[in-house]
């Protein structure tokens, strides 16, 4: 009988009875109304909040991406400017070094020309002084020779002695 009771009970659930359908519908509608009043609002607002939070996160992510791209562009521009500035500084340094080298070379050339000119002038003065001294000595020797000739006899032996004497005088005066 127990078996037949289960079948009977199962049969009553499967067979549509108007009272059961009515009360099931009423219960379903009441549950929907209660859920709409109590749970539907908070669920929808939670979903909307969640959607707003996700949208806000997406917007912030887009903003951060754009900002990072802008910073990256700015960094690249700054790097390019720094490279250009470094190239300019190096170029100016090289130009300045070349200018200084040229100035130093020119100054050294001028100094060497001055030194050469001064040395030539000094050599020329020494040469003139030596020639003047030599002329004076030759004149002195000539005067002494003439004096000796006038005092002595003019034969060949005397002349030879006078010349030898003048040569010796010249040698001793130079030393």
Structure characterization notes:
It is a single chain. 95% of the residues lie in helices and 0% in strands. The chain has one domain. Residues 1-10 have low confidence and may be disordered. It is built from three helices and no strands. By secondary structure, the protein is mainly alpha-helical. Helix 2 packs antiparallel against helix 3. It is found in: Cell inner membrane. This is ATP synthase subunit b 2. Belongs to the ATPase B chain family.
> Which regions contain 5 or more consecutive residues with pLDDT less than 50?
1-10
- Computed Rg: 65 Å
Total E-strand runs: 0
Helix residue percentage: over 70%
- Tally the helices: 3
Structural class determined from secondary elements: mainly alpha
Q: Can you tell me the overall shape?
A: rod-shaped
Q: Beta-strand percentage?
A: under 5%
Alpha carbon gap, first and last residue: 169 Å
Protein name: ATP synthase subunit b 2
Keywords: ATP synthesis, Cell inner membrane, Cell membrane, CF(0), Hydrogen ion transport, Ion transport, Membrane, Transmembrane, Transmembrane helix, Transport
Subcellular location: Cell inner membrane
Membrane topology: Single-pass membrane protein
């Amino acid at each position: 009988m127990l078996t037949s009771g289960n079948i009977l009970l199962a049969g009553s659930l499967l067979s549509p009875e108007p009272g059961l359908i009515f009360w099931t519908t009423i219960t379903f509608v009441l549950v929907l109304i209660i859920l709409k009043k109590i749970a539907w609002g908070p669920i929808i607002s939670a979903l909307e909040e969640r959607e707003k939070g996700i949208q806000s996160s997406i917007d912030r992510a887009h903003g951060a991406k754009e900002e990072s791209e802008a910073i990256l562009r700015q960094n690249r521009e700054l790097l390019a400017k720094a490279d250009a500035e470094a190239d300019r500084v190096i170029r100016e340094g090289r130009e300045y070094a070349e200018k200084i080298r040229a100035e130093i070379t020119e100054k050294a050339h001028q100094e060497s020309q001055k030194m050469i000119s001064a040395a030539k002038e000094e050599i020329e003065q020494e040469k003139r002084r030596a020639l003047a001294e030599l002329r004076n000595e030759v004149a002195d020797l000539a005067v002494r020779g003439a004096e000796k000739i006038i005092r002595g006899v003019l034969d060949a032996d005397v002349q030879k002695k006078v010349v030898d004497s003048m040569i010796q005088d010249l040698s001793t005066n130079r030393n």
